[in-house]
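Lab channel / #folding
Pinned by the channel admin:
"Please post every new chain as: sequence first, then the structure tokens as a reply. Keep commentary short and put observations after the output so the thread stays searchable."

First post following the new format, from NK:
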Amino acid sequence: MIFQEDVKHIAKLARLGLNEREERKFQKELSSILDYVSQLQKVDISKVEPVSHITGSKNVTRPDQSRKIEVEKVKKILKEVPETKEGHIKVKAVL
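Reply from TO:
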């Protein structure tokens, strides 16, 4: 059983502003989750072989290959983009 103080502490760490009704709701839900995890911990898995990937599939990749492109095509493409830098297309950072 998880206590209401624990729920308040977790909510504070997660920066969640919970009212009393939500605290009671999460107290029940978290208790239920922890009870289930407790049941899972009791399962005997001593005869089960560990696996890291159940399908046996592997990444299928192709080697990178550079392709020659005509200089005129490159110039045409660079004219169409909003911004370039040193002969390359400049894009906004994606983080």
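NK: The radius of gyration is 28 Å.
TO: also worth noting, The longest strand covers residues 84-85.
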